Request: fold
Amino acid sequence: MEPDDLPRRADDPLRLLAAQDLDRLSVAELEARIAALEAEIARTRAKLEGAARFRSAADALFRKP
Reply:
């Protein structure tokens, strides 16, 4: 991920995550990290899908006939 793609705030969790030194992690720790990140991606996608459904329902409710 390029620095320009990251959020601007220095204390943003995504920026902090991307800045972590991976060189000190063992293979098992790297695998655990990947599993945790994949789980977070799935959780985020589910939230995004729910938000999109909510938005679609709201748009349909307020759409003029």
In short: Helices lie at 13-19, 27-62. The chain has a mean pLDDT of 87. The CA atoms of residues 21 and 60 lie 47 Å apart.
